[in-house]
Amino acid sequence: xxxxxxxxxxxxxxxxxxxxxxxxxxxxxxxxxxxxxxxxxxxxxxxxxxxxxxxxxxxxxxxxxxxxxxxxxxxxxxxxxxxxxxxxxxxxxxxxxxxxxxxxxxxxxxxxxxxxxxxxxxxxxxxxxxxxxxxxxxxxxxxxxxxxxxxxxxxxxxxxxxxxxxxxxxxxxxxxxxxxxxxxxxxxxxxxxxxxxxxxxxxxxxxxxxxxxxxxxxxxxxxxxxxxxxxxxxxxxxxxxxxxxxxxxxxxxxxxxxxxxxxxxxxxxxxxxxxxxxxxxxxxxxxxxxxxxxxxxxxxxxxxxxxxxxxxxxxxxxxxxxxxxxxxxxxxxxxxxxxxxxxxxxxxxxxxxx
Length: 354
Fold this sequence. Notes:
By secondary structure, the protein is an alpha/beta fold. The protein has two domains: 23-237, Spore Coat Polysaccharide Biosynthesis Protein SpsA, Chain A; 254-340, no CATH class. The chain has helices at residues 39-46, 50-53, 69-77, 93-104, 125-136, 152-161, 164-167, 191-196, 208-218, 239-260, 266-284, 293-313, 320-340; strands at 26-32, 57-62, 83-87, 111-114, 119-120, 140-148, 179-181, 185-190, 223-234. The longest helix has 22 residues, at 239-260. Residues 1-19 and 349-354 have low confidence and may be disordered. Keywords: Glycosyltransferase, Membrane, Transferase, Transmembrane, Transmembrane helix.
């Protein structure tokens, strides 16, 4: 069978109840833009086991890459005939996933699986999600993620981001417990629920996953954090790349909160409050030594983080951890405040999902 026909030739997985989710019922989407460095390793990890994954529809929604990403996908299509390349003229990840559902989903598709090009997937990842979705019957199944890096700054940043200091205690960052959550790393969606709540908001460039989860839970959908599979997420390799990433994260979180008139959680306010206290302290330094207290404490936390990381990683590479942590905190806070101080209201769009 091909990815464009129902799964009539597939012998049902004995671990999945008859009539539940089988491989031909699954639409897998990877939004991408200039990801030549990561796309091949990601897809090759995702396509295992071949006997199961060859019956899924797998789509790379490309936002107009100019670095050879599209050529790599077309080359891989010769090995994986069920792989499709879809042009995403709106470039953003949210729009790419929506476009795949609009143009390539079929009436027999039950499950939408969103994947991240910066991730390396364990064997049977999509299969495990299908099995878990069939078991819990939730509107969404999310996964825990473990950051990884090859060395130097990237390795240290990967270590710190999975700690409470780096992630604020997010349940899906290094989490081990299966439970219902308000948000997690997006993995599998009941495709009917995805359409019902309008899919992703294509006007949101970052934090579109949390914004979707907010609408989903408000509509009565449940989100299940599975412990049956997890992903390895490849951290950005440089300080500048992490800075830009976390600026965008902060900006996107503020956009979501403004759109829904929601209050930020304490862990989301923490980096903003830290930055504001640092700024007030800097202004106070010429007049009182008390202005040195908070900066000194924060510098101590960053230094201590570096020393602990170096010890636990048994490498001087860990000394980058404090600098990476500071960049995450400050960039996120600046992005958040930049968006909050913008006069314009967040733009929302009618989402077309077929």
